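ENTRY TYPE: paired fold submission
RECORD: A
CONTENT: sequence, then structure tokens
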Amino acid sequence: MSTELINRITVKKDGVYVSSHSSNDTSPYHSWRCKGLSEIYAAEGQKGLDREVIRMLYEYAELRGSHKSLDRYRYAKDTPAAHAIYQRFIDQIDERYEGLDEADQKTVWYKPTEKAKEYRAYEREMREKMYSEIAKRCGEYDKKQKNKDLER
């Protein structure tokens, strides 16, 4: 399984562009308009974009390089506060899983029982809340940067 390596995220008038390449690909980074992120940005603005980038970083992508567009996502995801948020939600998800009967646990990923379906819905909901809460930290980063700029 490959990981998408991202070295820049840029919002332009016509959408959101990501400069990336796959971890199992030796070609150089290339910039491309990401339809999914562009649609989310158009519908929900910066908060929606931040949530989806955070989701990508937890599920299948990594940040690479030092472009300033990545700083807010590093701040949001790679701090002790973000790790605490992550752990709190994962503990709740794990607790719900452990509460399932063994028979239901075995069906979570294949031919799920009704209880397993309920668990999966709970897991999706909790992950959505987790990504949103971690993404709020991007706004905190922006405020800190704004205050630094005002002090100069």
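RECORD: B
CONTENT: sequence, then structure tokens
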Amino acid sequence: MKPLVYAITGHGYGHGVRSCDLIHALCCRSPDLPIIIVSSLLESFLENRLEGFLDRLSFEPRSLDVGMVQLDSVRVDLAATEQALTRLCRDWEKLVRQETVFLEAVRACGVVADIPGIPLEAAARAGIPGIAVGNFGWDWIYRSVVRRDPVWQEAGYRYAEAYRGAKTLIRLPFHEPMSAFPSVVDSPLVSRRGTRQRARLAALTGADPGKQWALLSFSTLDWGEDAIRRVQSLPATECFTVKPLAFPGLRAVDRRDVSYTDVLASCDVVVTKPGYGVLSECVVHDKPILYVERTDFAEYPVLEASVRAHLRHVHLPAERLYQGELQAGLEAIAACPPPEVRLVSDEGDLAASEILAML
């Protein structure tokens, strides 16, 4: 069979998590379909999430967008993002031509993009289906940033034009309107359930299974010594991270030993910032969330509204997070009321069926 090219933005692990879950569903539904993953995400991360299907997958490690450059998991670097967007807009046409040549060389049957624009524009030029998957578009993100430099508007225009050429959008929950796409199919959550492995984690890390377990779900977090000391001294809570995030005295887990999803399924509460990946996994596993606000993220109000509607939650001001002051929030979690609306995941079944029907 001709391969499907699956392009994943390198902006954060959330895009990679849901893409891997959807690729898993595609592999189950179409056992003979080869898939080429194009992304700047770590290949080891993708392999860990897709174990069992690696004989049918190949990887092209390159970046086709810039997302928002981040200082850490909570804060954006607008100046660095502006510089990166300037380079992207300058090279856009060249990158589209290169990607078109690649699609023709591998004889791709279609492109799925979460959610860079260049692969979708290249698919249109190559005459094959271009299918987007996401809950927000970069056109909306960039046009929401009020800056005097016109590069933000130019980038928004470039993405909108690329999105308009897509065959369809599979729109995930927690979304903005995504009005640039001419055709939209709404999907349930794309998120697979993990397995509770509390005994194994206790044996691996020495954590006390009788305490509250909190997962600090960040890819990076700029903590000083005072913040780390405060978290180390929490009297009734064991705090876990998934590597590469690690701090002295906390329980750092290698995802090769226990997957991120299984760590989350084993913990009692998740401390994080709102993002599609972590919110969907918390919904699926019915985990309460201690969340911090995100600065300069256009999607934050949409995601915060989703937190309030679909999860047990407590807001933790970002300044308290950076000071390591988690105890009051962790104690308040127990009194959280149940969510107003419970969402369900079909683990990518509908999205996979739609994609395969269009190839």
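NOTES ON RECORD B: The chain has two domains: 4-188+347-358, 198-335. The two ends are 11 Å apart (CA to CA).
STATUS: closed
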